[in-house]
UniProtKB/TrEMBL annotation:
Residues 691-760 form the Fibronectin type III-like domain. The gene is bglX. PANTHER family: LYSOSOMAL BETA GLUCOSIDASE (PTHR30620:SF16), PERIPLASMIC BETA-GLUCOSIDASE-RELATED (PTHR30620). Keywords: Glycosidase, Hydrolase, Signal. InterPro entries: Cellulose_Degrad_GH3, Fn3-like, GH, Glyco_hydro_3_AS, Glyco_hydro_3_C, Glyco_hydro_3_C_sf, Glyco_hydro_3_N, Glyco_hydro_3_N_sf. It catalyses: Hydrolysis of terminal, non-reducing beta-D-glucosyl residues with release of beta-D-glucose. Its EC number is 3.2.1.21. It comes from Gelatiniphilus marinus. One of its GO terms (molecular function) is beta-glucosidase activity. The keyword Iron-sulfur does not apply. Belongs to the glycosyl hydrolase 3 family. This is beta-glucosidase.
Length: 772
């Protein structure tokens, strides 16, 4: 049903009505460095009508009561209601469904003076109700088209449910497996985070933010959140200029250039300055140098948290620091609403700063089309038709199977024949219908995923006997529906081994064992750091007991972080990394297990031998005494290898690939020139399969020490048995430049190495020089 009364008809200023309505149908593709003139005129005309309390109100974001992800607000619903009625709220988060969103929007429309519509935000991280693999898992597909497609579906379901804005993608480069939020990003590499982040932004936002099926994206957390010391969430970050500019910021720069409508700042401090109060980051770099005109929202309560950091005396001081630093919207700190007006009167902040922040909010509301119709996204029929549809679930299955990484397949145990007499499906996650949804599952319903047990049953014929045993419980108590998982302490079962006997019994009588172990949904995500990244509870005991009676073990891993697989990889012939794959998890895993899909995923993070190696990443810098085969104790460990157990970029297939004839079309270029790199990739096995061909470079001498290898491109190709394809990459100025000691992005002349291969340990190498 279309709402008949447009809000602007209720604003008594007729010239404004004319301006707004006459520009109604144009495309509002967000270009956050080039402003859309007609939108700017409208923004100015609204701004001209606003009183100071209304301006400040636009900079306030409240949460609904639901799904609080931080310390719950001290202000009650009554306070929020009054503020909404006065038009002193710009946005709400955590209100979902068309009915609730309409009801909340109505409060503003019916009571406030200017009737400026609210924007509704929600953490749609890997799907709305149709749940896709966790972002780390999806990144393992190295398939930018399907990543974009899954974001587009998440946007469609969200927009059809009344939402306008997601707090995604997270593009924090994350290199410490102890950090629970590793699951939420694209792993350890800046290039991969940049291209995957852009794919997600394009998926969420489409070409036109005012389209009924698109939503605004939010690049987060600006910046450095993935570098928390010791992998502890929210922790202090100590990085210098080189690391900040060359590792942390590139994905954000790419997001700004791709037109991400919003950014979120971060909880952490960077070298002593909380990101929320970081003027250099937000005003000078993001809004200055990058000329980005979008909206910066604080993280939940992060303005107020500057008091705990010891950076602000009180909330008033925190509000002053945050606004001055360029944080436009206050999520749940209640600092802006309480103090900005006084700070303005005291001249501690300026009206230009407030107006600039308000403009950014209004601009987004115009881009979303909310001024044309504040109920534009409130249509129950659309909600019914689009959310959790069969088509969306089919895409979720496709994305999930492409995200699976085959880590080991020694005896060629996989793929399994569908004609096997018996299969044991064992483990605490084997029939878990909830963990595959992962953390941050938006409206994904408790226990709604296809478990692996179900997936296997769906795949095989009647002649195959499936024997199931849980073996052990991972946690105590089992996670209950409706509980606030964010606050729930996890207790691992380390005493009850009574189920292991049955697991052994079923393993004994089966041809093969699928052992489904790893982490449950809430072991990763916000506030979920761990010092133990192995198999918690009694899972190791289960593995050893099953191994004793049946050596044909396929470990099916479900997890949200790189795990310590040292013992598992010693004994199990096959390991399949299945992350938390979302709604269709079990079916997607069965597609791979039975060979209907040939696995093609590659790791976006290094898997260590043990937690003591963390943070572990391939693109490290050399020391003055580099580790080598000759000098294994140099810059390494006495009690463990230095290298990864499973390196970045690694993943097997049911076929094999060989690389050869690496060619550069020149040996020397100028900084502005380019070099064509080509390589022949051959499918040397007997099945068709996909391979992710990866390009790495090293700048051998730099004014800042450069990483030993840096990913600079990749292409996923399909090859039939025996087929060879030539894959080409172009290396140019953009590939070679970095943020140098001159504090600028430039190419420094000198020698470069270039490698191509199927993972980051490739040795297929050539060299070239950049000359002045
Ligand atoms: C998280 C953000 C999230 C926000 C709103 C915070 O705790 O750090 O990533 O978007 O909550 O739910």
């Amino acid at each position: 049903m279309k709402i008949a009364i447009l809000p602007f008809k209720l604003i008594i200023i007729s010239s404004l009505i004319f301006t707004v309505l006459s520009c109604k149908n144009e495309t509002t593709k967000p270009k956050h460095s080039t402003l859309n003139e007609s939108i700017e005129i409208k923004v100015d005309s609204v701004l001209a009508l606003m009183q100071i309390n209304e301006k400040i109100g636009q900079l306030v974001q409240y949460s609904g009561k639901w799904n609080a992800t931080g310390p719950s607000s001290t202000k009650g619903d009554q306070h929020k209601l009054e503020k909404l009625k006065k038009g002193e709220v710009g946005s709400m988060l955590n209100i979902t469904s068309v009915a609730s969103i309409r009801e909340t929007q109505k409060i503003v429309m019916e009571h406030s003076r200017l009737k400026i519509p609210l924007i509704f935000a929600y953490d749609v991280i890997h799907g709305y109700k149709t749940i896709f693999p966790i972002p780390l898992g999806e990144t393992a597909s190295w398939d930018l088209n399907i990543i974009k497609q899954s974001a587009a579906i998440a946007a469609k379901e969200s927009a059809a449910s009344g939402l306008n804005w997601t707090f995604a993608p997270m593009i924090d480069v994350s290199r410490d497996a102890r950090w629970g939020r590793v699951m939420e990003g694209a792993g350890e590499d800046p290039y991969l985070n940049a291209v995957v982040g852009v794919a997600r932004i394009e998926g969420f936002q489409g070409d036109d933010l005012s389209h009924i099926y698109t939503i605004a994206a939010c690049a987060k957390h600006f910046a450095g959140y993935g570098f928390g010391e010791a992998g502890r969430d929210y922790n202090t970050v100590n990085v210098g200029t080189n690391e900040l500019h060359n590792t942390i910021l590139p994905p954000f720069k790419a997001a700004a250039e791709a037109g991400a409508a919003t950014f979120m700042n971060a909880f952490n401090d960077i070298d002593g300055i909380p990101a929320t109060g970081h003027k250099i980051l937000q005003r000078d770099i993001l809004k200055g140098e990058w000329n980005w005109n979008g909206l910066v929202v604080s993280d939940w309560g992060s303005i107020g948290e500057m008091r705990a950091h010891g950076y602000a005396e009180d909330k008033k001081h925190a509000a002053e620091i945050a606004l001055n630093a360029g944080s436009d919207m206050d999520m749940e700190s209640y600092a802006y609403e309480a103090h900005l007006e006084t700070l303005l009167n005291e001249k501690k902040i300026s009206i230009h700063q407030i107006d600039d922040a308000v403009r950014r909010v209004l601009r987004l509301k115009f881009e979303l089309g909310l001024f044309d119709d504040p109920y534009k996204y409130c249509n129950e029929q659309r909600e019914k038709d689009n959310v959790y549809s069969k088509e969306n679930l089919a895409v979720a299955r496709d994305v999930a199977k492409k995200s699976i990484v085959l880590l080991k397949n020694e005896k060629g145990l996989l793929p399994l024949s569908k004609q096997l007499k018996s299969i044991a499906v064992i483990g605490p996650l084997a029939d878990d219908k909830d963990s595959p949804l992962g953390n941050w599952r938006a409206k994904g319903e408790y226990n709604s995923a296809v478990s692996l047990l179900e997936g296997v049953k769906n795949a095989v014929g009647k002649n195959t006997k499936i024997h199931y045993a849980k073996g052990v419980d991972l946690t105590i108590p089992t996670i209950e529906p409706g509980a606030n998982q964010f606050l729930l302490p996890l207790k691992f079962n380390t005493t009850d081994d009574s189920g292991i006997a049955k697991a052994v019994e079923v393993a004994k009588k089966s041809d093969v064992v699928l052992l489904v172990i790893g982490e449950n949904a809430y072991q990763t995500g916000e506030g979920r750091s761990q010092t133990n990244i192995g198999f918690l509870g009694l899972q190791n005991e289960l593995l050893e007991a099953v191994y004793k009676v049946n050596k044909n073990i396929v470990i099916v891993l479900m997890n949200g972080r790189p795990m310590d697989l040292s013992r598992a990889s010693e004994i199990a012939p096959t390991i399949l990394e299945c992350w938390h794959l979302g709604s269709e998890s079990g079916n997607a895993i069965a597609d791979v297990v039975f060979g209907d899909y040939n696995p093609s995923g590659k790791l976006p993070v290094s898997f260590p031998h043990n937690v003591g190696q963390e943070p572990l990443y391939y693109n490290q810098k050399n020391t003055g005494r580099p580790y080598s085969n000759k000098h294994v104790t140099f810059s390494g460990y006495r009690d463990a290898p230095k290298k990864a157990l499973y390196p970045f970029g690694f993943g097997l297939s049911y076929t094999t690939f060989s690389y050869g004839d690496l060619q550069l079309d020149k040996n020397e270029i100028k900084a502005s020139g380019d070099i064509k790199v080509s390589v022949n990739v051959t499918n040397t096995g007997d099945r068709a399969g996909e391979e992710v061909v990866q390009l790495y470079i090293r700048d051998l001498v730099g004014s800042f020490v450069r990483p030993v290898k840096e990913l600079k491109g990749f292409e996923k190709i399909m090859l039939n048995p025996g087929e060879t394809k030539t894959v080409s990459f172009t290396i140019n100025e953009k590939t070679l430049q970095f943020y140098t000691a001159n504090n600028t992005w430039e190419v420094e002349p000198g020698k470069f190495n270039v490698w191509v291969g199927g993972d980051s340990t490739t040795t297929l190498k050539k060299s070239f020089s950049v000359v002045e």
